[in-house]
């Protein structure tokens, strides 16, 4: 293989296609029969990935290990069925030993900076008693054996400790509910197999301890690794074929080839990035795959957990640029209905009549991407329908076909929730520009949230004064000085912040609101409605999912700070996707502890002992993805504010990023009310700070 000098590191690849599987099933007479649960698509997935990697090997140094097993002709002895066997030679069977040997080889030979790509295509399973998850592999004696989530995570943890950059792809599912059927899909098989304790023969979680893993006390010691722990990556990234309680499918396409739906769109999307010579980050790849699913196949919602900014198959590329990859609003055309769908809806502040500029997703560098415009003709809860208002310039005609993702940028917002600002008459000319801030309203009859005045004796210095001091904090109510150069960007930032702060579902479904409770644990708000905590202590939210049908709920957490920033707290925690899954569990509930701190000033600024933040909680009926930083701290004349970090993001039109609505058991996304918000004001006091309640 040739090696590109720009990428001297090795990319280790382990591709597993576990297509041979059997399951014991009780017969009416009390005996057991063997049911063949083999998947035709698993090995086809491996073949397609091998072909893709062969092309990549021209520019990337690859080390590829493929393990696969496709079903051979079934045989029987004296009329009794036996376990199906792979058609391939035993050396490449997807067995427990072969998989572990491939992982150990990477741990022993890999060097810091190397990349690791592990792709599993097959069945997932979950124990009934404790929810432990595992991957189903082939076993010559039992037919099926399991690679537990605990062992897999320990192997990956050993790689991360050596400085390897790991990407794990799981084209399977872990929900037993999928056995209810394929929801009317033809030629579809589910990628879940019922747990059988007789097949759980590999429980030695010490397997990778001898390879130098030095886990923290209590870390990775669970004999039973439940799904939310597996999907909480520390130093690695996971792509999953579907949400934790969805179904992953094996699909037979019109050409007769059977593939895993996720693996099919995975290879298709990677090939598209290579053809267009576009940088392939985890996030951009996920968004492309997601748009493909929405165009053709609503039954699965692909998920991304962990580092979104790593460049796949570019080991030396920057991987810790938090917030460096902007979240886009995807646009796609549904194949069956022909509707043009915007992946943002009422939950994002989208309103009927809003106008967007559309362009092809990840256009080839150096080329001018064709563009068109579209208006919102229907805004639903999590998505909206668009209608093209232009089809290109001159003789060029724009056609948006199913399976071709586009991206959208908001041009004009008609939302009635724009932010009213009162400006003195002598400075209105500074605001008469072609592209004013999207959420600025200078003509509203509502009480203004900001007053804009010119500094005495000058026409180039301005003061912006908040008027509503109770919606966020007294710290953020101080006046802001700006110049003619920074006036418009500052107004744009402030109005985007207030738009997000006021974002709410004004017509939530009563049934959905009844399905959960969300309270603050062990704290009572003061007379001003603000909770007080000490610096470094936890502000704990307690949530209970009371869903009657047992459906999970999804929670996203944001912090609005006095620096006029909006942060995604789940993404800041370095683990999991941008939402937390809350299982239906009666009255037990789930605690969400948030450590509160008073930030230290930057640049020699004055030390503060009190700060006020707002914790904004989104509760959703469907999985959702959110940008790492919705809005960075306000930057004026180079002042970066406090040291909690943050990065400017130019798109609150991307607020809540790519809320991944789907057509599922709770009905079409065109239904209303299946999301809501709760906000909690929190005052944090450092030692020596005094309570500053607002009366």
From TrEMBL:
Residues 37-305 form the Peptidase C14 caspase domain. Coiled coil: none annotated. GO terms for cellular component: cytoplasm. Pfam families: Peptidase_C14. One of its GO terms (molecular function) is cysteine-type endopeptidase activity. One of its GO terms (biological process) is proteolysis. InterPro entries: Metacaspase (IPR050452), Pept_C14_caspase (IPR011600). Belongs to the peptidase C14B family. PANTHER family: METACASPASE-1, METACASPASE-4. This is Peptidase C14 caspase domain-containing protein. It comes from Rhypophila decipiens. The lineage of its organism: Eukaryota, Fungi, Dikarya, Ascomycota, Pezizomycotina.
């Amino acid at each position: 293989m040739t090696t590109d000098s720009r990428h001297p590191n090795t990319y280790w690849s382990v591709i597993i296609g576990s297509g041979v599987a059997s399951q014991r099933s009780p017969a009416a007479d009390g005996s057991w029969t063997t049911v063949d649960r083999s998947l035709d698509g698993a090995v086809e997935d491996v073949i397609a990935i091998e072909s893709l990697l062969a092309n990549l090997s021209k520019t990337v140094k690859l080390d590829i290990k493929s393990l696969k097993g496709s079903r051979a002709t079934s045989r029987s002895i004296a009329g009794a069925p036996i376990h199906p066997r792979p058609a391939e030679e035993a050396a490449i069977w997807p067995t427990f030993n072969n998989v572990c040997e491939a992982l150990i080889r990477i741990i022993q030979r890999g060097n810091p900076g190397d990349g690791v790509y592990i792709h599993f295509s097959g069945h997932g399973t979950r124990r009934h008693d404790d929810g432990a998850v595992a991957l189903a592999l082939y076993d010559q004696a039992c037919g099926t054996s399991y690679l537990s989530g605990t062992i897999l995570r320990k192997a990956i943890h050993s790689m991360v400790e050596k400085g390897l950059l790991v990407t794990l792809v799981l084209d399977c599912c872990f929900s037993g509910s999928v056995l209810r059927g394929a929801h009317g899909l033809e030629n579809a098989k589910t990628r879940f197999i019922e747990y059988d304790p007789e097949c759980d023969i590999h429980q030695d979680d010490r397997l990778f301890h001898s390879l130098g893993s030095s886990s923290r006390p209590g870390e990775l010691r669970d004999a039973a690794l439940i799904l939310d722990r597996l999907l909480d990556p520390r130093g690695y990234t996971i792509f999953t074929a579907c949400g934790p309680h969805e179904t992953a499918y094996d699909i037979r396409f019109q050409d007769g080839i059977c593939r895993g739906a996720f693996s099919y769109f995975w290879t298709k999307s990677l090939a598209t990035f290579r053809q267009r010579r576009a940088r392939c980050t985890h996030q951009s790849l996920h968004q492309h795959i997601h748009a493909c699913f929405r165009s053709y196949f609503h039954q699965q919602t692909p998920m991304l957990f962990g580092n979104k900014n790593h460049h796949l198959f570019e080991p030396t590329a920057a991987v810790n640029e938090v917030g460096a990859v902007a979240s886009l609003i995807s646009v796609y055309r549904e194949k069956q209905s022909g509707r043009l769908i915007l992946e943002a809806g009422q939950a994002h502040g989208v309103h009927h009549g809003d106008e967007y500029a559309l362009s092809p997703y990840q256009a080839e560098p150096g080329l001018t991407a064709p563009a068109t415009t579209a208006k919102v003709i229907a805004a639903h809860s999590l998505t909206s329908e668009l209608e093209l208002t232009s089809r290109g310039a001159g003789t060029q005609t724009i056609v948006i076909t199913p399976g071709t993702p586009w991206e959208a940028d908001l041009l004009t917002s008609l939302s009635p929730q724009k932010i009213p600002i009162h400006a003195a008459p002598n400075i209105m000319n500074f605001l008469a520009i072609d592209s004013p801030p999207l959420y600025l309203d200078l003509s509203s009859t509502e009480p203004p949230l900001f007053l804009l005045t010119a500094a005495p004796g000058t026409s180039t210095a301005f003061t912006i004064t908040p008027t509503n001091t109770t919606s966020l904090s007294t710290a953020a109510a101080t006046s802001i000085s700006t110049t003619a150069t920074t006036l418009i960007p500052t107004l744009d930032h402030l109005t985007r912040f207030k738009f997000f702060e006021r974002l709410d579902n004004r017509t939530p479904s009563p049934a959905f609101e009844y399905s959960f409770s969300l309270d603050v644990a062990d704290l009572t708000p003061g007379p001003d409605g603000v909770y007080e905590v000490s610096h470094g202590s936890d502000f704990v939210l307690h949530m209970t999912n009371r869903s009657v049908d047992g459906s999970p709920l999804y929670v996203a957490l944001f912090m609005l700070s006095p620096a006029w920033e909006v942060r995604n707290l789940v993404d800041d925690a370095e683990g999991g996707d941008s939402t937390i899954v809350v299982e239906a569990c009666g009255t037990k509930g789930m605690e969400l502890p948030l450590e509160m701190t008073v930030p230290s000033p930057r640049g020699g600024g004055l030390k503060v002992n009190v700060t006020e933040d707002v914790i904004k909680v989104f509760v959703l009926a469907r999985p959702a993805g959110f940008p790492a930083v919705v809005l960075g701290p306000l930057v004026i004349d180079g002042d970066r504010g406090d040291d909690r970090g943050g990065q400017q993001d130019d798109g609150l039109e991307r607020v809540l990023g790519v809320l991944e609505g789907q057509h599922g058991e709770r009905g079409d996304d065109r239904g209303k009310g299946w999301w809501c918000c709760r906000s909690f004001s929190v005052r944090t006091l450092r030692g020596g700070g005094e309570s500053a309640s607002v009366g």
